[in-house]
Amino acid sequence: MTSRVAAAISAAKEAGRGAFVGYLPIGYPDLQTSIDAAVALAENGADILELGPPYSDPVMDGVVIQEATQAALAAGFRFRDTFTAVRAIAERVDVPIVVMTYWNPVFQYGVDRFADDLAAAGGAGLITPDITPDAAADWIAASERTGLDRIFLAAPSSTEERIKMIAEHSTGFVYTVSTMGITGERAELDAAARALVDRLRTHGVENACVGIGISTADQVDGVLEYADGAIVGTALVRALRDGGVDGLAATARELSQGAGPHAVTA
């Protein structure tokens, strides 16, 4: 099956630019607004949407995202709302939608059931920050069966053996962690990100998208000098918090300029 995520990255390359991947939590500030926000993000430059179901123990999330996800949970978010959101967004925009979630909710929901429901809703894949390929046999089988992309994380601390395993089992792209630590904006991205992309290339990775700490168009541009995509989360969540959907759209347009020319709405 053709990877919709890889196809989106390839289309960006053919247009002479890198891919802009935008993250938003589902259900913040409420479910419908989060759907409208994701649509606005796609309409204003995002090549790939990354949606995060709120989770009670978000060990990787920075303060801004944690506050948003806790607000979503307090407002009544349920894991099944993930599929409602994906379906509603997919009906309005033709941009690949990947879900980024910790493994426990998927395990509790049922791996095959999750894969079937995500595919039926129009989702394109899953990013799993806290499970590695050697522990993900059920998910690898389910993703093969349903055609969903499986996106594993590589970090600067990953061993060469782990890098090789991630390269062999990831589809769509490899989520390349720019620095050790939690998500959030940083004044300077670690040089470790460039070195990590180089290591992934030696193991045959075609699409490496860098995330964590990217918050400006200049940083997007800098990352895309050596990577295939730039992932932005905190800056978008802050824009939604402070300026609503319109504020988010404006920030998305600004950030997308760092990835190169886009056809965005006015």
Instruction: Please provide the count of β strands.
Output: 8
Radius of gyration: 17 Å
Structural class by helix and strand composition: alpha/beta
Q: What is the distance, rounded to the nearest whole angstrom, between the alpha carbons of the first and last residues?
A: 35 Å
Q: In DSSP terms, counting alpha (H) and pi (I) runs of 4 or more, how many helices?
A: 11
Query: What is the strand arrangement across the widest sheet?
Result: 1-2-3-4-5-6-7-8
Indicate the mean pLDDT: 90
C-alpha geometry: globular
Largest sheet: 8 strands, parallel, barrel
Question: Can you give the helix content as a percent range?
Answer: 40-55%
Strand content: 5-15%
- In the predicted model, the low-confidence regions spanning at least 5 consecutive residues are 262-266
Order of helices and strands: HEHEHHEHHEHEHEHEHEH
Function: The alpha subunit is responsible for the aldol cleavage of indoleglycerol phosphate to indole and glyceraldehyde 3-phosphate.
Family: Belongs to the TrpA family.
Pathway: Amino-acid biosynthesis; L-tryptophan biosynthesis; L-tryptophan from chorismate: step 5/5
Protein name: Tryptophan synthase alpha chain
How would you describe this structure to a colleague?
The protein is an alpha/beta fold and 266 residues long. It has eleven helices and eight strands. Strands 1-2-3-4-5-6-7-8 form an eight-stranded parallel beta barrel, surrounded by nine helices. The N and C termini lie far apart (35 Å).
